[in-house]
Amino acid sequence: MLRLTLARSATLAQAAVHTRASIVSTRVALQQVRYESSKVPDDKKKVLEAKNNLQRDWDAKVITYEELKPKTLQPSPDKYLIDVREPDEVLQGSIPSAVNLPLSVLSSALHLRSSEFKEKFGFEKPRFDQELTFYCRSGMRSTTASDVAKRNGYTNILNYKGSWLEWSEREGKKTA
User: What percent of the chain has pLDDT over 70?
Assistant: First the structure.
């Protein structure tokens, strides 16, 4: 009887060792499969990198007060100076020749048809290659607006980071 019990115990022990070994080998195999599944072929990797580069945050060319001032003295219908502050902020004042297109509606506005855009905002919808200079109160929203415009296909984007605070200080105007 004792022999039978010991024989069964030995068989069970061998089975347990074999089961543990198969579990470990299964884990190793799964890890290998998972490892291999994360490898991306070179051609696919290049496509993904190009896509990531397009979606990466981007900074527009920053212009200074000295570069912006002449544009306000001789405005052109081919160049827009866009104030992305909210309408109640624009009441404090704005840079001469600027048009208001609040950041809160910028993305959806750029998707409107030209006729709807003009009706809603009072000026022609910018062309994709048209020069767009963005400004706001302090330079933060204008940076975001530049990125939004770039992601919507606009290519000739400038950012006046000095924005309204610098402009009003240089022009001797008081801000509220």
Answer: 69
